[in-house]
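Entries read sequence, tokenised fold; example below:

***
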Amino acid sequence: MTRRTQLSRGARLLGGYLGIPLLNAVSPLLALPAIAHTAGAEGWAAIAIGQSLGGAAGVLVELGWGSPAPSASPARPAATSPRPTRPD
């Protein structure tokens, strides 16, 4: 692989890695004024509440709350852990 090909591949990977977060950051700035213009103050309030609840739910999902498995599994001694069985 040549150096130019490596740089091109690296730039493509970096662009793909940064593209989605950039789109996520810019899309509300473009869409919300148009939605607020058509839906009015009530629509703007509904969107703000929906985004707030969605952000809070995202934090809960990201931290794994509601699922005891990530924290309970390492604390269990190996002798009491269930052994995987192979179906016959």
Residues 3-61 form one domain. The helical segments are 3-63, 69-75. The mean pLDDT is 77.
